[in-house]
Amino acid sequence: MSRQTPEQRGSFGGLGFILAAAGSAIGLGNIWKFPYIAYENGGGSFVLVYLAAILIIGSPIMVAEVLIGRRTQQSPVGAFLVLAKDVAGGKAWSVIGWLGILAGFFILSYYAVVAGWTVYYFGKCVSWSINGFTAETAAGLGTEFGAFLGNGTQQVFFQALFMGFTMGVVILGVKGGIERTTKFLMPLLMSILVVLALASFRSPGFGEAIGFLFHLGPIDSAGLLEAVGHSFFTLSLGMGAMITYGSYVSRQDSIPRATATICLLDTLIAIMASLIMFTIIFGVPVAERATTFTSRSATILFTTLPRMFYELPGGVLLSPVFYLLVALAALTSTISLLEVVVAYFIDVRGWTRRFATMVVGGLIFLFGVPSALSLGASPALTGLWGRGFFGTVDYLASNWLLPVGGLGIAIFTGWVLSSSVSQDEIETGHGKFGLKPLWMFLLKFVCPLAIGWIIWTVLNGGDFS
Ligand code: PHE
What we know:
Helices cover 77% and strands 0% of the residues. By secondary structure, the chain is mainly α. 55% of the residues are buried. Bound molecules: phenylalanine (PHE).
């Protein structure tokens, strides 16, 4: 099935896997999406469910994905075909891989649109820094952003640009492209976030932001599904991205240690980003807040931060650097999304990397165009299916495909895959894994029950509040 040797497929060296996987995990999910969905879902309880989901659902599934990848040296469809050969269900397990490819296709299509915004804002901040900041009020920033969303040509241009960057890196392959790009990026991004977080301590909205983030209120079933769905999205789980990256992991690396590091970094960045953004939101007078953020919370990354930057000493420098880093963080995620789909055509169909990347990237771009136009440029697409085209694709992929994929991976690893295989793979590069019984328990019972229960409740229109 695999037409390439491991040498031809490529592999990560040294810290390469941790960095690439952290690069995949840390992205717009942390800096753009988490703050606004936490805001929409009322803060505290949502954050708590999200943290619990990372710990008891996300991290065990991440270990499972990476070990499936490293064991089989295959991307998702191929991996399940190899492992499921002699087990109950056989080839049918590869459906999980197919769902993953579909999810990757869907997510990348609209993710590239938002990633394009970060590139545009990088340019905008450069110009603000040189010519002076012209959008002093939150409402002013909101209006500017609205005009940008309504400009279809700009939306598609920046989306295309971003897809182009992503395809360029994926064509260069695992070591030359993916690893090199992620290596220097994460430390820089973290440092700027820390500077911003420190600055927000002293801002007027900080107390209220903390209160909002940690105050426990009621949460409904849709909010629960969203929190669990987001724990998959933010860790890049449920669609085989970690299976694919796992297939490039060296046998000297410890899978549990890498997983713990990735989950921790990812969570820290999401919480810091939210704290910073909420501080700004709650620093704005209530009346202005309502018009600016409530109607369009999905844009808070672009309608809040610039104002804070230009009040900070050194902000003139920090703000373009920040949006550049967010764009690069998005790039390390889009690379992994594209890689999942491309790797299928390389591993299972025997296409060349270049050809697979061009065809798949081109198709994903086309599918993303309606998303790019659905946020203002085309009212018909904005209202489509109640959530708009963009919102619908996001909803289907992150709230359904990823959790269902994760459910499949948990059941497969917990119940179907032989325990000696998973034990052997986990202990390779790690030594004795004392948490194995706990990990198995979570995969076998907790993950399937929790995900199944949430999906069932939402399907039945139930409410948890
Ligand atoms: N984890 C990425 C983020 O938080 C998004 C992503 C999802 C990447 C699924 C790969 C796979 O931005």
